[in-house]
Design a protein that fits this description.
rod-shaped; mainly alpha; 0% strand; single chain; 3 helices
């Protein structure tokens, strides 16, 4: 896998600039600029598309057996039936 420094050096090569030793430890202005731009640029590129390697999938746990909206509906129906029985008496 290409390291951050190797990737940045490839970009510098295309721009006709001199290489850096290590963007994480080099104290040059060029390395400082690369450090600032790298994470931002990486996030921008990852957000441009749905990259399969950059997606985390996880199974969700089942929290309730009956969805809450159905429970409320059932309670409301029971309450309505009780009220109807009272009215008939």
């Amino acid at each position: 896998m290409t390291s951050k420094t190797e990737l940045c050096n490839l970009a510098l090569l295309k721009l006709g600039k001199s290489r850096v030793q290590d963007i994480d430890t080099d104290s040059s202005q060029q390395a400082t600029d690369l450090r600032l731009a790298y994470d931002f640029t990486l996030n921008q590129i990852l957000n441009e598309a749905e990259w399969s390697f950059a997606v985390c999938r996880q199974s969700l746990n089942k929290v309730v057996d009956t969805p809450l909206y159905e429970e409320r509906k059932e309670k409301k129906n029971k309450k309505t039936k009780k009220e109807e029985k009272k009215k008939k008496k």
